[in-house]
Amino acid sequence: MMEEEFIYHPLENIEDVDLFYEAVGREKLTKAISPERPYTYWTIELYDKNNGIRGGGGLGVLAADTRRIAEKMNVPFVLITPFYPRETHQKISNGSISDEHTDVDYRDFGFRLIDTVNVRCCNNLCKLEVIEKQFHSTRIIAITEPNFGELYSDTSGSDHRLYQEVALGFGGYAALKLIGLKPAIMQLNEVSTFFAALARLDELVHNGMDFYEAVVYTRKHTLYTNHTLVQAAEAEFSYEQFERFVFPNVKSPAVKRWLSEKFENGRIKLSSITIEIAELKSGVSKLHARVANYHDAAGNKVKFKPITNGIDMNMWVLPEIMDFYHQNEILDEKDFLTENFIFRLESLSAIDIRLAKQRGRKVLNEVLAHRPDHKGNILQFGDNDFIFGFKRRFVDYKRPDLPFRDLSRLRVVLEERNAHYILAGRVHTGDTNMSNKLTGILRAIETDEYLSSHVHYLPDYDEELAYGVSVGCNATINVPIVGLEACGTSWMKDVANWGILISTHDGGVADGSINSYLNVSGANEDEELSMLYQRMEEAINAWESDFDLETLIRQQLADFLPIVSGTRMLKDYLDYLFPI
Ligand SMILES: *Cc1c(COP(=O)(O)O)cnc(C)c1O
71 and 130 in contact (C-beta within 8 Å)? Predict the structure, then answer.
């Protein structure tokens, strides 16, 4: 087969400084978007295994969904991310958790090598490969080299992380020049991508722009999307680390001086400088944008524009359910919700829901056929089995252990209708607290004959399991400690696939009404726990009654479809970034 020829036009300068000066004083700046001047989206994590890149969680899934939606909406969009040549898989054997590492080759996933670019670190030139893959109006540009390592390897303030972040920022900026693309906007998906904006600022000043004007230029064209709640929790880097990894890549003395002044007691948090370099700032749900506790250099609380995450419904929703949305004019042909979709939802009947779940159950069984549980068993479920799903990263604030606090009560709930409980979620490497919690749960359920045959843990949680469990389960449990979930998108997949949502009122769920799903709340954890079991019983009962099932699912969809919709999310970003 002939390799398609792609011709690139490297640019010495990808900044529209003249346009910027022309526009100063007018409302609009130089943000017009076009194929040569695309929307650029920077992310240290992408969860897009179809293209060879495995992420860690929601941050990466969001990035992949955003690109796919941009493709569907024909938006010129470039996602810049590392290609990690190694990835981790989690194994459980004899009750203990271990990680396995595998090599990944970008050539196996259709990436094309463009050329190499250099970044400087520790007195060395590091040669980075720039690889690219196009998808209609969008593309993924990735930076890689054989020793790039794994996603989130080492600790968050470590040299290796700083190297990865510098390589993405400075290397990615050089890659845009190589390919000849001018960034209309830089969206920084979390502060780990700060160095892309720094590379831009440095380039402007190096090319002769006044430092303060270059700061204005960079600020006007940078969006910082925050996913974290507290600034205090963020890792810091030292001045000495910057001397080895960052300063050698900065050409302008003025930029170097500016950066040096940002250190306090020889340390720096990237959020403090990202806040300064980005005029546009967003949070990922209404609640998160309101409570994210960040302060600028003057001590003022940072305002984040709420743009709630959404999901790429074409990726995460059962095709039969998508057909239903389209045929019943709930979604239009571009996947936007129609004006009277709430009225249209009246046509959704219990029969539709039950049939879709049977179809979803088949898909789940197909996934489970090659994804054994932690005991090595292949699970298969019948059409009439009732399944609760809990699938998300195994981190403390999401409380995967909550339903297991009272095993005898859990058993009573499940026994009532012989229900199953599927638990899936990876423990973060090195998180001994959570790996102890997980092995503790698995040991505890083994002590009860009923639970050991009705609670199933699926190791190595990934997109495939996320999809299978979403389409295949009847009810989903999402119980983060209120105030700690920035948004969460896992529950969105379940709601869009007609599962009953049992949840605390947190993250993106709190964008909706507390009465539109089975809410779990209480003055303390014991109260929350007893309400959780009560809600699980209600979910089981709702499936016994056509009327209750229809009412519940229609109500969830009426409230949450606008929140869940990824096209809504991208439109919100476009309206914010490129106001008419
Ligand atoms: C959807 C998804 C997530 C997002 O999970 P949240 O905890 O809800 O943010 C994480 N990992 C995978 C594999 C997913 O598919």
Answer: no
Q: Does ligand 1 lie within 6 Å of residue 57's CB atom?
A: yes
Q: How many other C-beta atoms lie within 10 A of the C-beta of residue 50?
A: 11
Q: How far is the CA of 174 from the centre of ligand 1 (A)?
A: 31
Give the closest residue (by CA) to ligand 1 atom 11: 57
Instruction: Provide block-wise average pLDDT over 10 residues at a time, the chain (580 residues).
Output: 65 89 68 91 97 95 98 97 96 88 96 96 95 97 94 90 97 97 97 98 97 96 95 93 98 98 97 97 98 94 98 98 98 97 98 98 98 96 97 96 98 97 94 95 96 97 98 98 97 98 98 98 98 98 98 98 98 93
Instruction: Tell me the backbone φ, ψ of residue 370, rounded to 5 degrees.
Output: -120, 15
Using an 8 Å Cβ cutoff, are 113 and 130 in contact?
yes
- Output the CA 407–ligand 1 centroid distance in Å: 26
The closest of 166, 160, 159, 155 to 246, measured between CA atoms, is 166
Angle at alpha carbon of residue 76, lines to 75 and 80, rounded to 5°: 120
CB-based contact 504:521 (threshold 8 Å): yes
| Ligand 1 in reach of 516 Cβ (< 6 A) | no
Given a contact cutoff of 8 angstroms between Cβ atoms, the answer to whether 548 and 474 are in contact is no
| Domains within the chain, CATH numbers bracketed | 3-15+38-309+572-577 (3.40.50.2000), 313-564 (3.40.50.2000)
Question: Whose alpha carbon is nearest atom 1 of ligand 1?
Answer: 490
Q: Are 471 and 364 in contact (CB under 8 A)?
A: yes
The residues near 93 (Cβ < 8 Å, ≥ 6 apart) are: none
Residue among 489, 501, 569 to mutate when testing ligand 1 (max atoms within 8 A of CB) = 489
Mutate to test the pocket of ligand 1, among 47, 308, 426 (most ligand atoms within 8 A of CB): 47
Angle made by CA atoms 449, 417, 393, in degrees to the nearest 5: 70
In a mutational test of the pocket of ligand 1, which residue from 392, 473, 485 has the highest number of ligand atoms less than 8 Å from its CB?
392
3-state secondary structure of 38: coil
- Ligand 1 neighbourhood includes 463 CB (under 6 angstroms): yes
